[in-house]
């Protein structure tokens, strides 16, 4: 029953946030910079819709559906305050489930019942990947199927397939608060698997506790259901036809997020827009990030990255509550910077920093970050060269200004 989950983690400036920050009441907004005078290099400063024609298709629709689904999956700290680390991965097809180490014998179930899309999250109280002695962990997988009947059948078959991995040792477990949940554990092993059909969705949960006590495992599994089921009940399922009509960038944040390339699209984790809750799945230091979002009213985030590594993040943009909240968020990020370096000229609300510990000779490393502020928005751009980072920052500022309509 032991399962591993490969995760995609975005570690941006937000992963360093560890304390609250206040607002700056009554602060007067400065005169706006003439963006035509900024050194933006060769970067495009038009909003995304002027550079990219979104083409609805099944793959794009699934990507957008997963971003939508991420908003109704409970982050680790909502389940247990110490579950501060982890990541997430999309499931576009049954084959994806295999590639991210979902149990191989589950894949035929996904195929047989025509799974539409899904998402998996991993949460732990340790920063190390994989099980660590004495750790607590929760993995949540949510899949949508075409009908309630398909989901119900899939949940039964998931449980049977999981149980049969060690059929002579596993024992069924009844969860008192959730009698419809299908659960089992292996005595002496500190993990439990449990799943449940909920309308057209199947919720599959894997928990690990410090002790191999069934009461501990059952209590943690029930806490997951406590946090997860009310959220999932708020999300109407979609059909294959609906996938073709899900809106591109419904928050209007991706259009404002710097992108270094002229050719781009939609996809997790490279190009996406997320709610504040959804974003937590992709970062470590989840509690501090959640607290900062609450303090500054962050409700939408745009992400552009060139890989799954933290040093390949090209840009992140946050929409805060108001101008004062953006100033407070920017000031806090400045305070967390290890080594400040020269900022772009003519941009007083911008700072740049060097990522201490990265090897300057690394071809892929993003050695420099620059953070800009415009109205209620904060953006962070990264590059391996300081001048390029400064030009990206100028382009992000110009993009914020050019997309203010």
TrEMBL record:
InterPro entries: DUF7373, DUF7373_C. Keywords: Signal. The keyword Signal applies. Residues 1-18 form the signal peptide. Residues 53-247, 276-403 form the DUF7373 domain. It comes from the Bacteria. The keyword Signal applies. This is Lipoprotein. It comes from Nocardia wallacei. The lineage of its organism: Bacteria, Bacillati, Actinomycetota, Actinomycetes, Mycobacteriales.
